[in-house]
User: Fold this.
Amino acid sequence: MSIKARGLVVLAVLLAALPLLLTNAYYYDVAIRIAMNAIVVIGLNLLIGYTGQISLGHAGFLGIGAYGSAILTTQFDWPPLLALLAGCAAAGLLAFAIARPVLKLKGHYLAMATLGLGIIIAIVITNETKYTGGPDGLTVPPLTLGSLELVGDRPWYLVVAVLLLIVTWLALNLIDSPAGRALQAIHGSEVAAQVVGVQTTRVKVRIFVVSAVIASLVGSLSAHYIAFVTPGIAGFSHSIELVTMVVVGGMASVFGSIVGAVILTMLPQLLSTFEGWETMIFGAILMATMIFLPKGIVPTLAARFRKDGGKDGEK
Amino acid sequence: MSQLIVKRLSKEFGGVKAVQDVSFTIRGGTVHSVIGPNGAGKTTLFNLITGIYTPSSGSIEFEGTAVTGEPPAELARLGMSRTFQNLQVCMNMSAIENVMVGAHLRMSQNLLASLLHLPGLRRADRACREEAAGLMAFVGVGAYTAAHASQMSYGALKRLEIARALAAKPKMILLDEPAAGLNDTETHEIEALIRKIADSGVTVVLVEHDMKLVMNLSDHILVLDYGKKLAEGTAAEVRANPDVIAAYLGASA
Amino acid sequence: MTAQFLQFLFSGITIGATYALAALGFSIIYNASGVINFAQGEFIMLGGMAAALLTAQGVPLPLAIALAVVVAVVAGLLVEKLAIEPAKNAEVVTLIIITIGASLFIRGLVQVTLGKGTHALPSFSGDKPLELLGATLLPQSLWVLGVMLVIVAALAWFFTRTLQGKAMLATSHNKLAAQLVGINTKAILLVSFGLSAALGALGGILVAPITNTSYDVGIMLGLKGFVAATLGGLGSGAGAIVGGLLLGLVEAMTAGYVSSSYKDAVPFVLILLVLFFMPRGLFGAKITERV
Assistant:
């Protein structure tokens, strides 16, 4: 069995077995949040780790999904799934509008553009109190499909675990395909990718849109799960947290994304009473990882275990 | 027949005229070299032909199609391939994946098939991988088929780039200083490799400083100096040209 | 009407001067290493906070200012020495993330040791507003502008007349060449961080009497300074100053005439516009990549 398949099986087994350890609602909550973060981070990693572009405002897309779902379901009586799709469409369109002009340029202009976009979204959410409830936030009704209502730990856990498994599978497939190799080539040497025929701008834009849509999807889901939204979900700090998960877990590593999400979702839980410490430790982790493990945890471990000098095992 | 027709090509960077009014044609199936002192504009010329720079004026026609100002991806689509003077290997990928990327335009880009890893795509990928391994053997780095690009030596990486350029099954391949940084033995090997490539029917365009290699391989030589065409002709003609001798050849060859 | 306009003009230029100093800091480090130093905002914060706390302890203002700048400079040097240098030849993305980590660390440290409260710094020459053409101008604003002009002049002299300054410029144009002629580029990077920290800190100190300071002012000030630097063209000194002042002005005008709650969005809308229409900024250099 290939490493990819082995990894998926391990993940599936872990996800199936985990509920045995989740003895109360709090643990379920952490697990569900971890899974949601992991899904966003996998999408973000496709952009940062594989394609080599950096987004410093990804939380903004989470905000679009979350508030899109919240506002459309409470104030306009839309069915939740339709609101979710609308959020994804809005995030995708916005990502496209920003990315097209910016990704034509070389260098880290996308970082600046996404920084700006993320903050603008957060400010709009905070100011348009009439729709968004401002800093106080909004309550969100449960996710419904017809007469079925998604409420409670176990159903939500099932949904996000399955979703995580699917997204992991899709991402692994993508990486191991001509389209995936084109992505990585752009990171390795954009001009080399161009001369072999890759339309680099188009590919970069596409990946950015995909990662934005994934973020919006998770945003909507988390809004229904938590049953509440606040502007913080779209904030700069949240964007930085997501980037941290990518780099710590492993750039250009799907399983690394999951590891990063696990570590950095649990960390604030452990430090929940020590706000300032949390920020400091986040900062220290970020610096230490980038200095000593610049490839992130999973790829560095994978390289250690690579004895025969064979190709980069799992990605 | 003329595969590449360059007419009055010029490129200016601010006040610097890197290439001035250069015209030449390249016939399909030949080995064509571009030589000249450092700074003569050879790599700029390559970059113009392969679409990385847009000409300030002049025209380029490849395989009967006007391609002036077209982006590199378009030229790749028409059958042009190249290597780089400053190695542009993707060090974040394995050796064989680097070569597989070269076949990009011949592979399906269907997103759905990629995401779901449909059997058709898997089969094509396997075939592509085998082909890439074959190419790596052809250029002489067959020992590295299981290696990561970051593990390979400079000389090996230069050949890997050539393998990547060949993976596209190009009609014309442009090699920018393939022998740069190589010792005598390695240079001989590269010469043999280029001969093999030319023999397979691919047009080879070469920028090189190693005069022995150039004289041995070339059917036709173009000499540039200060961005302008100084002379062109067969190896014997160029060797005997007094302008060329004065500007460049001097004591070598 | 004009009085109101002038009012906005004055406040715009005042805050713009702080942005300009922050932007200069960004440009200097960017020139020396290609890195966008996201910790710059925290140097601004350290300046203001340190000065506020020292004066609260009874330290005379001029001494407090000098010490506060020293604190920021030390922080800058530490960041370079402990976070940037060990990363050696990392990718620029990696270095940028390291600076983000450094900024989080510094901010967290201040939050833990000094708390989340706001602190005030006394105005340098009193609070009695001056009357100018119908608008009120705080004396502190004159200080901000004045000091900024002095700094700009000093930097101009430094970069064009002194050997160290020219060495820094040389490093920014071509690091390898600079190394080959014997310039210690490692030291240059260290000095760049120190200098940028000093500039940022001064900006923070100058504006603290007007806006008050707390542990988290660095985020917005830093980001806006970065926008200002990009507006003017990353790496251009003149661009940083023009960008900073322009940003301050547009922000103040928007706050005054359009909506004050969207004032903070202005820099980021501007940066999007710049990226769409003028990515190299007002004074940025056109660069062609050699392949």
